[in-house]
Amino acid sequence: MKRLFWVVALCATLTACGTSVPLTDVPVSDATAKPVAAGSAPGATASAPPGGVAPVDLTTQNPQASVAAETRLVYFDYDSFVIKPEFQSLIAEHARLIKSQAGRKAVIEGHTDERGGREYNLALGQKRAEAVVSALTVLGVSGAQLEAVSFGKEKPAAQGADEAAFAKNRRAEIRYR
Amino acid sequence: MFSGNFFDMRFSFWLKFLWLWVALTCAPAYAQFRVEVSGVGLTQVPISFVPFKGQDASPQKISQIVQADLERSGQFRAVAAAGAGTLDELTLPNLSIFRQVGADALVSGSVNKLADGRFDVRFRLWDVVKGQDMGGQSFAVASAELRLAAHRISDYVYEKLTGDKGAFSTRIAYVTKAAQRYQLWVADADGENASPALASVEPIISPAWSPDGNQLAYVSFESRKPVVYVHDVSSGKRRLIANFKGSNSAPAWSPDGKTIAVTLSLSGGSQLFLLNANGGSAPRRLMQSGSIDTEPVFAPDGQHIYFVSDRGGSPQIYRTSLLGQNVERITFTGTYNISPAPSPDGRWLAYISRVGGAFKLHVLELQSGQSRAISNTSADESPSFAPNGKLLVFATQQQGKEALMTTTLDGGVKASLSGQSGDIREPHWGPFAR
Prior knowledge:
The structure holds 2 protein chains of 2 kinds.
Chain A: H1 2-17, E1 73-75, H2 88-100, E2 106-111, H3 118-138, E3 146-152, H4 163-169, E4 171-176
Parallel strand pairs in A: 2-3
Antiparallel strand pairs in A: 1-4, 2-4
Helix pairs in contact in A: 1-2, 2-3
Chain B: H1 12-26, E1 34-37, E2 45-49, H2 62-72, E3 76-78, H3 95-100, E4 105-113, E5 119-127, E6 132-141, H4 146-162, E7 171-178, E8 181-188, E9 195-200, E10 204-209, E11 215-220, E12 227-232, E13 238-242, E14 248-253, E15 259-264, E16 271-276, E17 284-285, E18 293-298, E19 304-309, E20 316-321, E21 328-329, E22 337-342, E23 348-355, E24 358-365, E25 370-373, E26 381-385, E27 391-398, E28 401-408, E29 413-416, E30 423-429
Parallel strand pairs in B: 2-3, 2-4
Antiparallel strand pairs in B: 1-29, 4-5, 5-6, 7-8, 7-30, 8-9, 10-11, 11-12, 12-13, 14-15, 15-16, 16-17, 18-19, 19-20, 20-21, 22-23, 23-24, 24-25, 26-27, 27-28, 28-29
């Protein structure tokens, strides 16, 4: 019954993603394609803005929609990168569905709790994401369809400095693009 | 400073008393920021600041900015002198008034609005003890540059009286987070006069100034993964320099500005690579390990890189040659040592160490290997040296908010930087202006 739930939920997710713009994900644009150059200073300091700093505003061009889907989340213990047994069936279903669509790409986003440095947490989140990627690869998913990235502690799912919040934040999210 | 006379518990009571005394007597005078003075044996030059003639009509109170700068440095103590009357840079002051209150030096000056709308700022520094004129300068600046003129006065006074170059007219970069808006700012070294360089709905971390102070490298999550940009501050033009498969992070410039070290996971695991700062070349792998390697930062000699690795089972700071050889472990105490920041003279290494669940700023003397915590806070991050090596800026939490502080290397004098509301983080102190 639980297995059926995952299958249905994942099918729903993937169907939604089948449209040109996924509802749950922000399309990734190559930032080099349209550099946001604010102010052109042709070598003259006189044309530089006050303080010599030209502002660049990205907030109007990258609206973020974040939908937490339980079917995409793998939680980890403190200081751990081991995928717990209860998440094996979830990963197996993702593996089956990714394999069934050769053009499908999945990005695994690793996250940590708020304790410690930003860059070191980024590396820890990367280890979690890569643990999920290798679990998917072991199940036969092509590495070309997968990318492991990390948000470190920058995108907590839950606010708060207690273990309940920390536990929700130590996670990897499977997102389809 | 680190010769073994470490903080002695016996002084604890007296330090608290001293803090209280400083807070009670000085707090109202500096609404701009809060300075905490601790430690014993601090030698501070007592100095008087007379309000600059005409500064009441100026948008910036020059003498107050200079006073705040010099007090934040930890090397000066402001001494108020009543009855000095109005002085400017041309007045021959009655130095006996200042001798009576124990001042060793005096700064006087003037601010006048010019016909073209700019301001003429002039000052003079006096050696009160010897009764000598120690020189002065004048600046004709736009209204927006009045604070910079004040910081230049601070630099002059600092160098004349300490022998070291002042870093008050330099800039710092930092990131703010308010609601779901992240902004990268460029501000004066006192945190004021901030200009926004970048705004994004996704996080921005790890800004790093190029050695010429014209560009910032940083990590942006705007494409839903960490990638590294180089951003020209005066034009706002941005270049993606690391957007490889996986995560791209932790940029650090070489002292000659030609190379940027980064952490990439393009072949699995967080590993160190070198990139040509102008782009156009494949990343060169610095070394190969099965562990996390991250937070590279060049030593001032340009020949070594400090970095963080968990190869020994816990995150520790190491040093390697640019060829990835002769890897040497630097930190040995504790099980979590991250975010290395070498001083410009290569003598000190600031870093963050976890001590009993608290993350505290530490300073290590590289020659002796002696290290100690220099903060009173418990969520410290991202230390960065002033270009003269005399102060550190770091991020921490105060009253539940992310805030920036400066500290002297011995932790004796600390100040909270103001100028922004909300959460402030990820400071990086820029180079001297060229």
